[in-house]
């Protein structure tokens, strides 16, 4: 009897122990589950996290500007003294050719399709051979769709076309008047050499060596009343860029400028009157101050982007130091205005019909 009582007591103790152990393990398990829930996000949380990361990446991609068309002013030196010039000879610096090529390669990797070499006068440095090597590099090695130059034309020789012409898509020559006296007043001249005679000579070379010929004109107080229709028709450029004279503080206006261009400035109405007078010319591409100011990606001689939004040229750090993607954020570039002004056009000579009708002056 006593043995039976002891066995019953032991059985009861075992049940109590088992119940206690269950309770302890249940409490521990509950706490573990709560901790895991806090550490591991739910399926919905994971989906939301992925969406947020994707949206951030998309916003970042939209904010990145692609340098589709770049204007590289690799030198500021010039042999002309145009009174309204807005990229003046404030330094004589020119990058070593290998550094310039490194920067051009960075631009290509960032999405550049068109490079335009300008100055200053780009044919002045090393008599055009420095320029020619960059043109060759961009077309032959980087295989850019379009390589172009803007020049006053005074330093160009036929030997340059023979050596480098096949690599060049477009050559733009600046000419603001077809009156020699007006060119002298503006400063678009060197001594008594005829700027106009040279212009027509270069036009013929462009035809001979299959380079698209383009013309740039800055409209100002000294040529505002001129009718250029006959000469433009005779030259037959693929494009005639017509600019309204633009003031840039520190370049052609203000205390530290090398030019005083205020006397060249015209009103919007005067500019429109000039455009109306030449409305029959189909290749005319007008650019008012509004269209010009923020619609160009400009690199200076140090390969810094120049922001012109405040009416002056504020430089970024060089793309050689911080890369294109970071530097371009300080360019002030307005891509919508770039497209609005016709910045994207048929710019590869492979797509053009260069069998022009011969024009005789």
UniProtKB/TrEMBL annotation:
Annotated compartments: Endoplasmic reticulum membrane
One CC-aspect GO term: mitochondrion
> An example of a Gene Ontology BP annotation on this entry?
defense response to virus
- Record GO terms (molecular function): 4 iron, 4 sulfur cluster binding; catalytic activity; metal ion binding
Hydrolase as UniProt keyword = no
- Residue stretches making up the Radical SAM core domain: 64-284
- Needed cofactors: [4Fe-4S] cluster
Specify where it is mainly localized: endoplasmic reticulum
Q: Which domain of life is it from?
A: Eukaryota
- The signal peptide annotation in the UniProt record is 1-23
Fetch the InterPro entries from UniProt.
Answer: Aldolase_TIM, Elp3/MiaA/NifB-like_rSAM, RSAD2, RSAD2/Viperin_antiviral, rSAM, rSAM_sf
Pfam families assigned to the protein according to its UniProt record, in alphabetical order: Radical_SAM (PF04055)
Q: Does the keyword DNA-binding apply?
A: no
Q: Which UniProt keywords apply?
A: 4Fe-4S, Antiviral defense, Endoplasmic reticulum, Immunity, Innate immunity, Iron, Iron-sulfur, Membrane, Metal-binding, S-adenosyl-L-methionine, Signal
Similarity field: Belongs to the radical SAM superfamily. RSAD2 family.
Which protein is depicted? S-adenosylmethionine-dependent nucleotide dehydratase RSAD2
Taxonomic source organism:
Alosa alosa
Q: Lineage of the source organism?
A: Eukaryota, Metazoa, Chordata, Craniata, Vertebrata
């Amino acid at each position: 009897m006593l043995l039976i009582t002891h066995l019953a007591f032991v059985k009861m103790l075992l049940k109590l122990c088992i119940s206690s152990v269950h309770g302890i393990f249940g409490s521990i398990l509950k706490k573990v589950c709560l901790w895991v829930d806090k550490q591991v996000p739910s399926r919905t949380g994971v989906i939301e996290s992925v969406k947020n990361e994707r949206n951030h990446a998309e916003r970042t991609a939209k904010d990145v500007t692609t340098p589709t068309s770049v204007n590289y002013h690799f030198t500021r030196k010039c042999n002309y003294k145009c009174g309204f010039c807005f990229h003046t000879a404030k330094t004589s610096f020119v990058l070593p050719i290998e550094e310039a090529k490194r920067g051009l390669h960075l631009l290509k990797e960032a999405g550049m399709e068109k490079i335009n070499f300008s100055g200053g006068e780009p044919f002045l440095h090393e008599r055009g051979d420095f320029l020619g090597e960059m043109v060759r590099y961009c077309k032959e090695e980087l295989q850019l769709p379009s390589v172009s130059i803007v020049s006053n034309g005074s330093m160009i020789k036929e030997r340059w076309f023979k050596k480098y012409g096949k690599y060049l898509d477009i050559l733009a020559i600046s000419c603001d008047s077809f009156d020699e006296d007006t060119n002298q007043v503006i400063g678009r001249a060197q001594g008594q050499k005829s700027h106009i005679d040279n212009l027509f000579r270069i036009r013929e070379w462009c035809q001979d060596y299959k380079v698209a010929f383009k013309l740039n004109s800055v409209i100002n107080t000294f040529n505002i009343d001129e009718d250029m229709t006959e000469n433009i028709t005779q030259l037959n450029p693929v494009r005639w860029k017509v600019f309204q004279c633009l003031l840039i503080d520190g370049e052609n206006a203000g205390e530290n400028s090398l030019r005083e261009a205020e006397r060249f400035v015209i009103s919007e109405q005067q500019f429109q009157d000039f455009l109306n007078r030449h409305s029959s010319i189909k290749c005319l591409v007008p650019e008012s101050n509004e269209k010009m100011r923020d619609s160009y990606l400009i690199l200076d001689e140090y390969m810094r982007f120049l922001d012109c939004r405040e009416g002056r040229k504020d430089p970024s750090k060089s793309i050689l130091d911080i890369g294109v993607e970071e530097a371009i954020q300080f360019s002030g570039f307005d891509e919508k205005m770039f497209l609005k002004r016709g910045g994207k056009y048929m710019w590869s000579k492979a797509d053009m019909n260069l069998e022009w009708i011969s024009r005789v002056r």
